[in-house]
Inverse folding.
């Protein structure tokens, strides 16, 4: 074991990890947020232009620009959550989530139903539009460049405010993967670009990110499999070609509460990997942030081990 059996060391590691996360948050989270906000403001401006500065919020326009719907939800007073707009417009329950998550309308839905849902969305948005943000709609004039810039900034702030936590999580994940890649590259490992290559065909001394591992379902008939995403898969340089790779999940957290809510997910994934690659297969976590002893104890009891980001050198103990 690397850290799962070092119970007396947990408290100190938790303190260092929390400090590590907080230092990163103070120094880098604002930049991640600002970068996303700038990108979002540009997308808002583009949507305003497509909708003729919000003077053409019509089913036809929404059908051509489905990505604009999420932006329009932030153009109302008050801003509308997805479920609230679904209720106000009496929309098909899954229509809005499908449109916003896939960038297109449900493929099996009849055209008349699609049009009716888009028409309802347009009607709700038009009734609740925030004229303080879009003053030109109140007086019927063309917006000035300054008004457009101000409106896009406000809407971008609303959008980013609603997704602040995902922005931070994404930035954390990118940093963790970058640190692992740097560590492995210094050890002479090569990154595999093709994520569709099979585990068996991965060469020794290679690694890949966000890999879909075909795993056997637990408590299911033999042959039932499922693709489970794993953040990092590493084929050791000195291990036999047929040896089980190293499986790592990157985990970061800004508070102690949410980690305990999601700890069962790793346990299920670890069980599926063991059911596929044998009882000696271990899922390793790459941890940064707020993970308390309750979380660590639960994972250890499930046969899961971990490496702290503040002590990344422990990856060497995996035979890397």
């Amino acid at each position: 074991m690397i850290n799962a059996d070092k119970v007396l060391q947990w408290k100190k590691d938790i303190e260092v990890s929390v400090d590590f996360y907080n230092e990163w948050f103070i120094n880098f989270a604002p930049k991640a947020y600002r970068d996303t906000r700038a990108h979002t403001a540009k997308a808002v401006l583009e949507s305003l232009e497509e909708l003729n500065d919000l003077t053409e919020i019509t089913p036809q326009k929404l059908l051509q620009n489905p990505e604009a719907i999420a932006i329009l939800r932030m153009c109302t007073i008050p801003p509308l959550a997805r479920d609230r707009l679904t209720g106000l417009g009496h929309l098909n329950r899954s229509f809005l989530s499908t449109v916003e998550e896939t960038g297109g309308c449900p493929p099996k839905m009849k055209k008349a139903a699609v049009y009716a849902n888009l028409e309802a969305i347009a009607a709700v948005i038009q009734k609740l539009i925030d004229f303080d943000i879009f003053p030109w709609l109140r007086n019927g004039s063309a917006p000035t460049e300054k008004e457009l810039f101000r409106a896009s900034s406000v809407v971008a702030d609303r959008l980013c405010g609603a997704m602040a936590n995902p922005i931070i999580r994404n930035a954390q994940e990118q940093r963790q993967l970058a640190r692992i890649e740097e560590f492995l590259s210094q050890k002479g490992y090569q990154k595999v670009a093709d994520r569709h290559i099979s585990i068996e065909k991965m060469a020794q001394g290679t690694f890949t990110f966000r890999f879909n591992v075909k795993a056997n379902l637990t408590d299911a008939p033999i042959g039932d499999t499922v693709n489970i995403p794993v953040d990092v898969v590493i084929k050791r340089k000195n291990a036999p070609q047929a040896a089980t790779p190293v499986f790592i999940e990157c985990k970061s957290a800004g508070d102690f509460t949410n980690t305990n809510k999601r700890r069962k997910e790793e346990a299920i994934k670890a069980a599926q990997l063991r059911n596929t690659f044998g009882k000696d297969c271990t899922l390793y976590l790459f941890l940064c942030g707020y993970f308390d002893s309750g979380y660590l104890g639960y994972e250890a009891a499930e046969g899961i081990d971990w490496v702290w980001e503040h002590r990344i050198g422990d990856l060497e103990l995996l035979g890397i």
Observations:
- Strands lie at 190-191, 206-216, 225-235, 246-253, 283-289, 305-308.
- Residues 45 and 149 are 8 Å apart (CA to CA).
